Amino acid sequence: MSAVQPLPVTEPKPEQKAGPHAPARRRSLAPLEPVSSSARWMLGLAFFVVFVAVWAFFTLGGFVSPTFLASPVTMVKEGWLLFTEYGFIKDIGMTIWRVVGGFILAAIIAVPLGIAMGAYKGIEAFFEPFVSFCRYLPASAFIPLLILWAGIGEAQKILVIFIGSVFQITLMVAVTVGGARRDLVEAAYTLGAGHKGIVTRVLIPGAAPEIAETLRLVLGWAWTYVIVAELIGSSSGIGHMITDSQSLLNTGQIIFGIIIIGLIGLVSDFAFKALNHRLFAWSFVR
């Protein structure tokens, strides 16, 4: 009778050696896999480098006429002239003032109204059809009426931003407040809170981080409205400069104005996001 031969011992694969407490191996380009902060910055900057390189290749290489698209070098030169000879810094200041004024005015009205609509279903039933209707109306469609009502001064431009922002903020805030956790509301009632206490101590604190994010998003939309307002009947602002440059076929100044709008919007977005993280740090803990 032959002896039983022992089974060969196979070395487990590296992934089989890992126990339940072993650190998970990072996977590159996997779905939902996070990247480090430094890698995020490098990838973001890499896109801009590639974009400018392609832009320079087609313009400096003569593939596109300067009449239709200025080169990056020409754009920088025209931007320098705007600041040194044409007082472009005043135009930037006027545009920022209009955006901030219209946006703050919209937030002052929209946030309380949105909270009331989200908290009280009767108020929501009364206002939501009108707010939803107005949300789809383009702010630019009101410009002829606003010129008749308020002239071509600052009030008209601020009202364009106000109309474009107030209905969006109202509906988004109402949805955020109305989506509060019911168990928290019931727990507050159990502990003796009244209707006012539910709103001020449960609904508003719970929705505050999302309301702040809503304001950050709508602030970005407000920048599109101000340029539309400045394209018609304006004597100052970035939009006014772009219109003047278009009549002179100066694509370098047009592109520079567009880039300045993007940079200001990006800075304001980062500042808003940093403020939200500071005010509601507990909501960003994962």
Secondary structure category: mainly alpha
Radius of gyration: 27 Å
Instruction: Give the low-confidence spans.
Output: none
Overall pLDDT confidence: 83
E-strand count: 0
Large-scale geometry: globular
Indicate the percent of residues in helices.
Answer: over 70%
End-to-end Cα distance: 65 Å
Q: What profile does the largest beta sheet have?
A: none
Order of helices and strands: HHHHHHHHHHH
Oligomer, anyone? single chain
**Count, helices:** 11
Beta-strand residue percentage? under 5%
Describe the structure.
It is a single chain. The chain is mostly helical and 286 residues long. The protein contains eleven helices and no strands. The protein has helices at residues 14-17, 37-60, 72-85, 88-119, 121-135, 143-150, 154-178, 182-190, 195-231, 238-247, 251-279. Helix 4 (88-119) packs antiparallel against helix 9 (195-231) and helix 8 runs antiparallel to helix 9. The longest helix has 37 residues, at 195-231. The protein is globular. The mean pLDDT is 83.
Sequence-ordered SSE layout with sheet pairings:
Blueprint: H1 14-17, H2 37-60, H3 72-85, H4 88-119, H5 121-135, H6 143-150, H7 154-178, H8 182-190, H9 195-231, H10 238-247, H11 251-279
Summarize the structure.
With 286 residues, this protein is mainly α. It is built from eleven helices and no strands.
Which structural traits does this protein have?
mainly alpha
